[in-house]
Amino acid sequence: MKRSSESQALYERLLPEAIAASEKAWCPHSEFPVGAALMTADGAVIQGCNVENVSYGLTNCAERTALFSAICQGEKPKSFRAMLVYAPKVALISPCGACRQVMVELLDKGCPVFCVGHDETAARDWTVEQLLPGAFDAF
Q: What does the entry list as the binding residues for substrate (predicted)?
């Protein structure tokens, strides 16, 4: 995949953080770890991992964990520079619908979202707007 030098730099900075986050995942039911790395406006990185519950509806995805942690730490919605989502057990990961809806509210519509699995050649780059076109957005 051909990226701009800025996008490539973001990708390279976030990938090891997302990999490290995936190693913290609590996924005893699915055995499907996912990690996310979210870059703040000042270049800090906030990690998120999936945290499962035997009642799957109570599970929280890595993307939402990172976003909710960032907001809890005082980061402002729509101020983030990029997010990378990583899953080692698939060639390519893609955010679920719930995560996409949360991204619409907390990330700028042009914010890059890099998605990658164990096959880095299959990686995809999207913007939030591309992930959820025509999204419901109260803002």
A: 50-56
Q: Which residue in the list 6, 12, 17, 63 is annotated as catalytic?
A: 63
Q: Note if the pTM is more than 0.85.
A: yes
Split into its structural domains, the chain has a count of 1
Catalytic residue list contains 63: yes
> Is 86 annotated as belonging to a binding site?
no
Is 34 annotated in a binding site? The answer is no
CATH number of the domain where residue 25 is located: 3.40.140.10
51 is in an annotated binding site: yes
Read out DSSP for 32-78?
---EEEEE-TTS-EEEEE-B--SSGGG-B-HHHHHHHHHHHTTPPTT
- Nearest-5° angle of CA 38, CA 118, CA 61? 40
In which domain, by residue range, is 23 found? 5-131
Please state, in angstroms and rounded to a whole number, the distance separating the CA atoms of residues 119 and 28.
23
- Residue 48 sits at φ, ψ, to 5 deg, of -145, 150
Taking only the tens place, the pLDDT of each residue in 72-128 is 999 999 999 999 999 999 999 999 999 999 999 999 999 999 999 999 999 999 999
